[in-house]
Amino acid sequence: MPGRRPGGGGKGRRRLVRAASLLAAAALWQLLTVTDAHLWLRFDRLPTLGEIGASAASRVTTQLYWLDLLQSLIRILTGFGLAAVAGVAAGVLVARSARAGTC
Questions:
Q1: pLDDT tens for the chain, residues 1 to 103
Q2: Are 38 and 53 in contact (CB under 8 A)?
Q3: Residue 86 domain flag
Q4: Would you say 47 and 29 are in contact if contact means Cβ atoms under 8 Å apart?
Q5: Residue 58 half-sphere exposure, CB side, CA atoms within 13 Å?
Q6: Contact 41/47 with Cβ under 8 angstroms?
Q7: Cα 88 from Cα 18, distance rounded (Å)
Q8: How many other CB atoms sit within 10 Å of the CB of residue 49?
Q9: How many CA atoms lie within 13 A of 51 on its CB side?
Q10: Which of 93, 74, 70 is nearest to 82 (CA)?
């Protein structure tokens, strides 16, 4: 078929490679934290995947989590909106500038 790469497996293969990469990284993290490895990082001070999951599950069930999440989303959207308005205003000013047309 035209347009296909030689030896390509398509989207399914890419997704499988991505998933395998994530699983390998998670397994390595778990192994290093459970064995309290001392390499370039002190993994004895980092939480295991189980501890991370338990902490996340307990926090998601609180009202404070959802309030913090909502406030963060409001800040992000406000910043995006201000940047969009400023960008459009700057674009209009540059487009209407006499100096911009003489380049």
A1: 555 555 556 888 999 999 999 999 999 999 999 998 888 878 889 899 999 999 999 999 999 999 999 999 999 999 999 999 999 999 999 988 877 666 5
A2: no
A3: yes
A4: no
A5: 5
A6: no
A7: 38
A8: 13
A9: 9
A10: 74
Which residue's entry shows tokens 């992000």?
76
CA-closest candidate to residue 48, choices 64, 31, 63: 31
Residue matched to tokens 């395998």 = 20
- Assess whether 22 and 48 both reside in one domain: yes
| Residues 49 and 28: beta-carbon distance below 8 Å | no
* Closest by Cα among 45, 49, 26, 25 to 36: 45
Q: Same domain, yes or no, for 34 and 78?
A: no
Chain centroid to Cα 54, Å, comes to: 21
The residue whose two tokens read 């390998």 is: 24
Query: Domain range for residue 46?
Result: 9-61
- Specify the residue for token string 């293969």: 13
Q: Which two tokens stand for residue 68?
A: 């913090």
